[in-house]
Amino acid sequence: MKKFNILCTLLLGIMFVSVVYELYSAGYSFGRGWYLADELIKKDTPTMEMAINRCELEGKKTFFPDTLANVKTGGKVYTGRSTVMYETLYKPTFTHSVWDILKIIVELVYIYVLIRLCYIFIKLIRQVNRGEIFDISTERKFHRLGWLMIVGYALEWLLLFIDYSLANIELMLKDYDIVLGEHPSVLLLVSGVGLLIIEQIFVMARKMREEQELTI
Questions:
Q1: Phi and psi (nearest 5°) for 62?
Q2: Distance from CA of residue 126 to its chain's centroid?
């Protein structure tokens, strides 16, 4: 049981750091956007708004359309497809506003999913420590954890598509095409499906235990 608690504490710590990082990223983006909007008001540009976003770029004619200076060697570094963060002015439209609102909603739901994962995981640890292992409530917690992870993976895809859509509204670059970014890590998806499998193992174990008790 001691090793179990140590491993669970380690996993819970990783999940907590992930939640804090997501909250920090969301707060930083909001604060940066607020500051830039204030700067625009001071410059008297009421018809324009400032966008802070990220996108995936790919060269149109060549895979390495730009060069950077390598200070260490004095040579050049040829750059190609990459994910970039950008700030730019754009004219607000209804479509852009809809995507902006959708992105905020999805980010809030994603943060809620992460917090909910931590909460259910803590309850699961406490339940196992009480010896309530082959129990219906334990199975339900594995079920919820699994589906929350799968939903989190789907939300990452949705955020990727929203960033791609916003970038196409805000940007048109000379040497680069805006492309859909690299797919999110499948870790959440694999973990979610894995927990659903574990749930079914617990269901079968509980039923076998009940059958044995009836036989005795």
A1: -140, 155
A2: 27
